[in-house]
Design brief:
152 residues, five-stranded parallel sheet, 43% helix, binds [cytidine-5'-phosphate] glycerylphosphoric acid ester
Length: 152
C-alpha cells in the first residue's frame, strides 16, 4: 500500500536545506505532498518572503522527489489535509519539535533534523551585505568624480 507523506513550509529562496528535507521525507514513503505557505498565510506567520507564492509553489512542484503541491492557507487545515489525502506520515523540521503532536491521532508525526548552516534568513542577510557594498561602490564613484574635479 503506497505510503503518503505530507509536509508544510514557506520554501522561500529555495536552498539545499529545503532540498535535503524533501529528499529525506520522500525516502519515508512513496508519495510526497508539500503544502506551500501562501503569501497571505506567511503574513499571518509574521514571515516576510522575497519570492511570491506562485513561484515558490512552481519551484517545489518541480523538485524531482515532490509528487504534489497544495497551498497552505492557515494553521487549521492540517487535519483535513491528512484525511483528504489519506496521509500516513506528517513530517517537518525539528524547529517545530512537538508543535504538531495533535496530528498523532490521524497519522504518524516525524520531526527531522534541520540542515545546519543554511536558512532563508541567512540568505536574505547575505543579500543585504551585497546591496550595502553596491551603495559603497556608488559612494566611491562619487568621491572619485569629486577628486577628478579637484585635480582638473
Ligand atoms: N528546513 C531544514 N533545514 C534548513 C531550513 C529549513 O530542514 N536549513 C526545513 C524546515 O524545518 C521546514 C522546511 O524546511 O520543515 C521549510 O522551512 P520553512 O520554509 O522555513 O518553513 P516554515 O516557515 O517553518 O513553515 O505549518 C508549518 C509552517 O508552514 C512551516
Amino acid at each position: 500500500m503506497a505510503k503518503t507523506i505530507i509536509t508544510y513550509g514557506t520554501f522561500d529562496l529555495f536552498h539545499i536545506g529545503h532540498l535535503k528535507l524533501l529528499q529525506r521525507l520522500k525516502s519515508l514513503g512513496d508519495k510526497l505532498i508539500v503544502a506551500v505557505s501562501t503569501d497571505e498565510f506567511n503574513a499571518l506567520k509574521g514571515k516576510k518572503t522575497i519570492i511570491p507564492y506562485a513561484q515558490r509553489a512552481e519551484i517545489v512542484e518541480n523538485i524531482k522527489c515532490v509528487d504534489m503541491v497544495i497551498p497552505e492557507n492557515d494553521w487549521e487545515q492540517k487535519i483535513l489535509d491528512v484525511q483528504k489525502h489519506h496521509v500516513d506520515v506528517f513530517a517537518i523540521g525539528n524547529d517545530w519539535e512537538g508543535k504538531f503532536d495533535f496530528l498523532k491521532e490521524y497519522c504518524d508525526v516525524v520531526y527531522l533534523d534541520r540542515t545546519e548552516g543554511i536558512s532563508s534568513t541567512q540568505l536574505k542577510n547575505t543579500l543585504k551585505t551585497f546591496s550595502v557594498s553596491k551603495h559603497e561602490i556608488l559612494k566611491a564613484f562619487e568621491i572619485l568624480e569629486q577628486l577628478k574635479k579637484d585635480f582638473d
